[in-house]
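User: I want to check something. If I give you two sequences, will you return the structure for each one separately, not as a complex?

Assistant: Yes, each is folded on its own. Here is the first sequence with its structure:
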Amino acid sequence: MTEGLTVIISFIVPLVEACGALAIMLEVIRTTFQYVIAFLGLRPVQLTALRMRLGQSVVIGLEFLVAADILKTALAPTWNDILLLAALIALRTILNYLLEHELKVLHSNAASPKDEQ
């Protein structure tokens, strides 16, 4: 039973990591493409919207990567692995929190009426 679970998890971990990387990379490509189009003056784009979508994708990608780290540690939980996992989760949680805070600020700035001059 344990060996079968280990084999299953060892196949799942790269898939979960790939999902996290894919979530981030697809949005990076899309954002870069839209920014270049706007930079060349072919079509206007709101930078706030680009930043919000990119930030949301990074948050989702980080969630996938944390899940993969948890699954990896479940395979061979030595104390060093557990400490490394705790440090990775702490860093990614802080990054995730800061990104979500930035997204809330961007969202509230986008939703609030512009100051008239």
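And separately, the second sequence with its own structure:
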Amino acid sequence: MKYKALIGMLAFLVFAGVQMTMAQETSGDTAVAEAVAAVAEVVEVVEAVEAVEAVDPEANLDSGNTAWMLTACALVLFMTPGLAFFYGGLVRRKNILSVLMQCFMCMCLMTILWVLVGYSLAFGDNVLGGLVGNPMQHLFLKDVNGIDGIPDQLFMIFQGMFAIITPALILGAYAERLKFGSFCVFSGLWLICVYCPVCHWVWANGDASSFFGLLGEGALDFAGGTVVHINAGVSALVLALVLGKRQGYPDKLSPPHNLPFAVLGAAMLWFGWFGFNAGSALAANGSAVNAFTTTQIAAAMAGLTWAIIDRILTGKATMLGMITGAVAGLVAITPACGSVSPMGALGVGAGGSICAYFAIAVIKAKMGYDDSLDVFGVHGVAGMWGALAAGLWATDAVLGNDTNGLFYGNAPQMLVQIKAVVMTIVWSGVITFILAKIVNAIVGLRADEEAERVGMDLSDHAEHAYNTLD
């Protein structure tokens, strides 16, 4: 109600002015009476404005912020087709359509689940001690119709774009071996049982007296380091372990069948990520500008860092390495873009690239798991680094708080960040394992050997992208 403050001030000035003027020209009683009458007229104006607002709900609409958030929504949605090309170019050609299909299905299935009940579970009032939101509060988008700056419905659909891409990230871990029907069942359950609770803890539960509310009260996660990337990365690792290795892994698998597709997908992801991060400011303001700037810097630094590592260790800088590093940098800056400065983003990006490289080249090699497209290394590990870096390099200038120099909250803040990371890892890992076992027992997760041999495009969808298959 931006008019009320102005009108209230006007009422005070009218009252004071009339009282002083009348006191000089008439008796005291007459001055007071006329001042009261003047204030009554102002009150009538206030009531008239409120009546207009009641009739016209868009009286509170901020058109600039709304326009920006509509754009951000489209940018975040654009990331899922980008992910489809990124993942699709990295698998064998007999499986590209299966990857594209799974990403496109996420755009459809997750949207429907989100508007029916997911939004309420994520952003409803606390139930079960803050574990999740009240599923009945906004069931079927009930009461999602207010306008305070931006429309409630716009906030809902913006958050829905995050709910679309997060399950899609996981599919890179089980690409080329999970049945399509099982993918649909598992992904839907994962959104409801894993994503929505973590989203509620971090972005909706502000009750610090509850165990889960401590995350929303103190953890720095501007755009989804815990909610999106650690959540998806840990789940990807669990599924890779549950499903087992692809046929012929690691010696008899061909390299990415279409690297230019993967480069195109990475570029689309980078472009859409500005809506992902800067849009999380929920306004066209300085916070959005800082998020936009740090996103670009971190991604650039991470891509450069990976190329340098490749050059030092192998003698050649690779295209696949550079786009992988850039995505790792985008992941790392996601939780930190609202708390670090542009110079801090250099460290976030470089660290994200180094951590992801180590996870893929060392940890994966030693553990021997088959995470097809390195979702755990790029999203899980780089996301963990970014969540910690969000506290490590948070600055007063960005946060606008009375902090302690370079380090925001020092040890207490880092403990909150560590707690957020650990809680997300435990919840995501345990619930994903349970869901995977349930789905496997009911409909089966993994495709049979013949389906894997001919490719998921033909076995699941009876079509393929090329005239010949490798």
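Because they were folded independently, the notes below concern the second chain alone. The first strand starts at residue 126 and ends at 127. The chain has two domains: 2-55, 67-461.
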